[in-house]
């Protein structure tokens, strides 16, 4: 039985060669042991694996019904924008001033408004887009979703994201600047955000953001020009001083066209 | 007052030029309005920002005391290994079989054991390392931290991670394979995991992992050879079929030497 020595004392450091010396059918025979003991815990563990394997069906997966947004994102159950909204929730407070740099169809603007609005009416959302269609869509969504008091807390402005400083009051303390970079979903795919103006917009966001604030970016890369814009964002993020900024990118490694969330926290 | 038109109806799409037409001192004058109204909500919002700015000190930061591990990681308050352990918690169940491919000083092995161990004694951890010192350190940690019953649920094996299939029973359903790639903390920095064997180890992990399982990798890149190993892991992850695998990498963009967590979920 010397070849089974490593099975007897679990914390003994041992060579796997001994394990190889046990033919598989021998392990299967030993697996009939009903109750593990110090003398056969390896074998009984193998038995356990045979007699009551952990559940593997989707319904019984440990990921089923999980509500943690990050893990849901990591395992492909949530979108990049869902992840961004979850991160915003941890950063933004009621009464904050925030800015949606590319309001698109308005879903981010609405999510931001819900984070900052309360009875104090101090919260405020600036929502920008260079496309009139985007502002029209956002306006419709907000009209449908908000009460008149809440609608007073959103300002829609038809302007390039690089010019956000022309919109936000000079003394404003902005807790969040959000970007969705690419084209307007459902709109003309040839109208896209561009690396040059996006870089300028990020520089502007850096200037207006308060300490403890967040620049949140989701870069869509599946269209022509998308990768160049991602490179511009990465170049911007890579040069942020580590003493003041934490810059984290998430990438679906086996989905090169998946949107890329990037979070820049100002300490 | 036509230059103030955009202030009156918040959802009106407007040009920022009008805002620029208001001199800052004019805005400050308007800020004296005590109660916002439909006619001056932009002005009153600017006032709000001046009179009671959102808190910006670290003590009052919205990130202070936050317990969400992901956001804590994203904002630099948690380590890559903390993030990995959080993700494991969502995947691993009591009674599971898991494998620590590079046990190092044993902290991952201990964390895994705590996830799988319960009164059923079905849970099991295989912990491998090519360095005897690592296994000695892990053994000491486990002896200090576990009761005798729990210690029975860990098998330490002195072997290269690429040979994990020689250790795990052929019919085992493995829910988690964890890697910490680099050198043994506190050990000899010239003894490192290597791209070639790491690639083989990942292929082996792919073969033994059950559906719903996770290959969790933290790649240390600050030492010579670290970047090459990261490339090997990325190459491996990039070729995983999207229909069966979700492969996500997190990168601190402005800290090129920060450890890189990579999670490979099998659907």
Please, could you describe this protein's structure?
The structure is a homodimer of 267-residue chains. Chain A is of the alpha/beta class and 267 residues long. In chain A, 37% of the residues lie in helices and 18% in strands. Chain A has a seven-stranded mixed β-sheet, with helices on both faces. In chain A, strand 4, helix 10 and strand 5 form a beta-alpha-beta unit. Chain A is globular. Chain A starts with a helix and ends with a strand. At the A-B interface, helix 2, helix 4, helix 5, helix 6 and helix 8 of A face helix 1, helix 3, helix 4, helix 5 and helix 7 of B. Strand 6 of chain A pairs antiparallel with strand 6 of chain B, so a sheet runs across the interface.
Distance between the termini of chain A: 61 Å
Mean pLDDT of chain A: 78
* Major sheet strand order of chain A: 3-2-1-4-5-7-6
- What's the SSE pattern of chain A? HHHHHHEHEHHEEHEHEE
* Global outline of chain A: globular
| Percent helix range of chain A | 25-40%
Largest interface: A-B, 100 and 101 residues
Category from helices, strands and their pairing of chain A: alpha/beta
Number of discrete helical segments of chain A: 11
Biggest pleated-sheet summary of chain A: 7 strands, mixed
Approximately what portion of the residues of chain A adopt beta-strand conformation? 15-25%
The gyration radius over C-alpha positions of chain A equals 27 Å
Low confidence ranges of chain A: 1-67
